[in-house]
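[Solved] Which block belongs to which protein?

Original post:
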Amino acid sequence: MRRRKRGTTVAAIALSSLMVVSACAKDSGGGDSGPADASGSGCEFAPPPSAVAATSSTAATGEKVDGSALKVGLAYDIGGRGDASFNDLAAAGFDQAIRDLGVKKENSREVSAAPNEDESAKQTRLRQLASEGFNPIVGVGFAYTEALRAVAPEFPDVRFGLVDSAVEGAANVTPLVFAEQEGSFLAGVVAAYQSRKCHVGFVGGVDIPLIQKFEAGYYQGARTAAPKIRLDKKYITPAGDFTGFQDPPKGQEAAKGLIDKGADVVYPAAGASGIGVFAAVKQAGVLAIGCDADQYNQPALANNRDVIVASSLKRVDVAVYDFIRAAAKKDLASLPKVFDLKVNGVGYATSGGKIDATLQGILEGYKAQIIEGRIKVADKP
């Protein structure tokens, strides 16, 4: 019962946060930016699942929660608010808390990490927020794991949320983790059906397990839909060099390399570097799929949004909002263990009108099979 209620709450918040970020693009072969229909791709498809009605949810009324007494601290990963990706989603959840819960912006603070900064800088950032009375505090990204391992025990009464990671043994750190591979599986299905060459590509920001989850789901979805599809990948930087999340020129270079090999649909999981991926896709006249949020509606991508045919959604905004709401209620145990398709913590968006009703039905069919457990999506390539 609790899980069902959570799903409607998540869906309601997600509807108001689709103006944030994600990224997608498709190939036209001859400069035609129009989409292929479900039977017009260059791939030979496996029998699709039975179509089901598109999921719809209505906003749950729920109890009114007062967060006006909270002092909320947000510690962003590199790029901060305005990265047109991961951090902007967290910012959207914070903004939603201000609107819905009465959290006072003047009593809250947003701080950001620098690329490849020393670990002590993260500890200092979190320690300063906690010392100044901010509670709850959200570490936006796994990069804060080690810092919280050191800082959280020093402030046992402060409630910390940690996006994309967990701290073993720290009772005051709530992990906010996602089944990114499930949303990416659906992105792979879209890519297969939209590709005219049956050849798709993946650009990862940094070669780490978290981004490999996106790769694994994307490849599995594409191959499930079209078993003979060709897939190529490129990571911008190796593990340990996190500039791969904040380097649009290198993102553009990586995407161009995949396109030159023949990929006509490119899916980036690369943070702000995705901006460069979309630029390369636009220049080549092919297509892309957004990541993390509905990037078709992201203002920073307005010039290239016509190549974005769909987006996988990782609802960091929902997780941040729900964490703040649960902190206000003093009920953190109500949060899901994993934000997955079952609770609408991940999903997909089709803004732009390039996905027809047939493909929409196929996507909903695969989505239902994942939720029912008939398809198990791998989290490793």
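(Second protein starts here: sequence line, then its structure tokens.)
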Amino acid sequence: MATREIYETTFDEDVQTDAESNQCPECDGRVTTNAIETVCEDCGLVIDEQRIDHGPEWRTFDEDERERTGAPLTAARHDRGLSTEIGRGTDGNGNALSGQKRRRLSRLRREQTRGRFQSKAERNLAHGLGEVRRIVSALDLSETIRDQACRLFRSAQNEDLLQGRSIEAMAAASVYGACRCNGRPRTLDDITDSSRVEQSRVTNAYTTLNTELGLPAQPVTPSTFVPRLASELDVSDQIRQRARQLAEASESTGATTGVRPSGFAAACLYKAGREQGRWLTQSDVAEVANVSPVTVRTHRDTLDELAV
């Protein structure tokens, strides 16, 4: 009766032959690889072990069972989002808790809050990141800006830039720095209105961040403010495109050097509206740009002289 090797015509999904190096370095025997290790079938030499399992950690037996991987790491929390938060009032199914369980959870919550911060620096970091999240939410910015601002605040604390400065000012400066690095049209007035400190303190904090950390912030141009102001004024696409052309043409001539970008963008929209038959008032345009009507008129005269 003829004999044959095991698994010659069948397949075992747990045992595979190494195609690249199918010979043992000791005895030139056959090498097989399973889910745990790579061994030689002849001499038993273990060539490789503890291979990384890239599959899921959980097993699902029904549709209602939840995964046990937890929430992803986030830079918006001082502990990267690894700490546990104890809920209030209801259990996992939404049912009300008894008075005894609520008192027990209250004691657990108090002890968990006490042990959440290991040092005063960690407590300050948590407060600063919370302020960053509040400002980002008030300005309706993206999560990318939020995470970058949180990393910037964390870097400022690691470089001891918080000494002599308020946490709120450094948090607002981090948000403004993240917006500048990503080319987002946000003025310092917008950041200050959502923060709890004066504009001079935010300016001082941002100057420190830009100098000490070397932020890759690009100069803000009037053309970047045109889409935002156009959306607030609810103008047509033709006016938006014409205003952007006016702003870009003025930037190429150097007429926008040393001027406030939002004010010049407002003047471009005002001039484009007059050309398209949309009579925008100088007061309305100046209000959305947070400048005075005199600034709009001055930049309008500059555009008329350029004849772009």
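Accepted answer:
You had them paired correctly. Confirming on the second one: The two ends are 96 Å apart (CA to CA).
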